[in-house]
Amino acid sequence: MREVILKIPEEKYEFIMELIANLGLEVEQEIEIPEWQKDIVRERMAEYKKNPDSAIPWKEARKQIKFKKK
Fold first, then answer.
1. Comparing 57 with 30, which gets the higher pLDDT?
2. How far is the CA of 41 from the CAs of 38, 57, 62, 65, 70, in angstroms?
3. Tens of pLDDT, residues 34-55
4. Range of the domain at 57
5. Structural domain total, the chain
6. Does some domain include residue 57?
7. Does residue 27 lie in a domain region?
8. What pTM was estimated for this model as a whole?
9. Residue 24 lies in a domain
10. What secondary structure does DSSP assign to 20-70, as a single string?
């Protein structure tokens, strides 16, 4: 499958979106990340820069995650 990014004039947006829907194509919606979540990531990145040894390798972190069974 190919991915296409379009820049659409505002006055043509509704028409293009309706066309895409009628063709049965998948539309990826842009997800807005709240500023408070971005702040948490920035804090963690800053902490890592100060002390890289504080990071947990993915294999270890994955062991600490509890997954729910369906």
1. 57
2. 5, 17, 19, 19, 29
3. 999 999 999 999 999 999 998 8
4. 33-70
5. 1
6. yes
7. no
8. 0.47
9. no
10. HHHTT---PPPPPPPHHHHHHHHHHHHHHHH-GGGPPPHHHHHHHPPPPP-
